[in-house]
């Protein structure tokens, strides 16, 4: 079967007006959430989908990599303003990557290149206030669902970079999730995250039960079908502990979920410092590009611009 005859992922499941939602979440810091969102965002944009990344993390790593934070015009909206009623367009910027950094000695400014089909809602430190605010105003927690309900644009998919907790802020992001949407946990196999994955499943189940107990409206159904095993050993970087984690994850989750390998790669570690996704500086066959291409296909995002 040729690529173009594969079924395209339905990016408006059930005929709804807002795009498919996809979030990386695991209750562990430093576990490839942002790396995976950045790689998937660029991969899907290159495949012809119209993608918007929402940076929910107060650390703003995704905003930094996509150059959506520095040099924001004064007063430009962030995700915090969006949560408080600002318009989506006023809180979005085109994703960019850094081509040449500013050189104050030579008097030159930074040069950027825009990434087609990809926009970013920049993160904000102020989101730390959200939990306190929503304790005072219960309606605030529904802001993202309201944004979804009122959306009239033509985006295909919204990718959410979430921080590593199920705070009220993160729950507000997950409220509109339906069964067709996906929460994708990335776990670094070099770390202790196998246990954190178990905790993530439990916390999501609790969240679902709490939110849906009294709900006659749409249910919140954050669904996990795919799990990413990130930083897997390679011939050039053998790691017997990593191999054991991969085997153990396969034994625990392999029957119920699709597991994907993202090989250990130094190039992916450079995204943050370079303020550019691997696609902008890695060879086109770099391991992470290959691996996230496979993941994009497994998630159902057939390439709409096959070479
Ligand atoms: N496939 C990989 N190979 C090697 N290193 C990786 C890989 N994926 C991610 N990393 C590295 O792991 C570290 C954590 O990644 P990342 O920042 O994406 O995690 P995170 O879950 O978003 O962290 P945080 O909780 O701080 O938001 C980074 O240094 C990143 O470069
Ligand atoms: Mg992150």
From TrEMBL:
<keyword id="KW-0472">Membrane</keyword>
<dbReference type="InterPro" id="IPR025669">
    <property type="entry name" value="AAA_dom"/>
</dbReference>
<keyword id="KW-0812">Transmembrane</keyword>
<keyword id="KW-1133">Transmembrane helix</keyword>
<dbReference type="Pfam" id="PF13614">
    <property type="entry name" value="AAA_31"/>
</dbReference>
<dbReference type="InterPro" id="IPR050678">
    <property type="entry name" value="DNA_Partitioning_ATPase"/>
</dbReference>
<feature type="transmembrane region" description="Helical">
    <location>
        <begin position="20"/>
        <end position="46"/>
    </location>
</feature>
<protein>
    <submittedName>
        <fullName>ParA family protein</fullName>
    </submittedName>
</protein>
<feature type="domain" description="AAA">
    <location>
        <begin position="29"/>
        <end position="175"/>
    </location>
</feature>
<dbReference type="InterPro" id="IPR027417">
    <property type="entry name" value="P-loop_NTPase"/>
</dbReference>
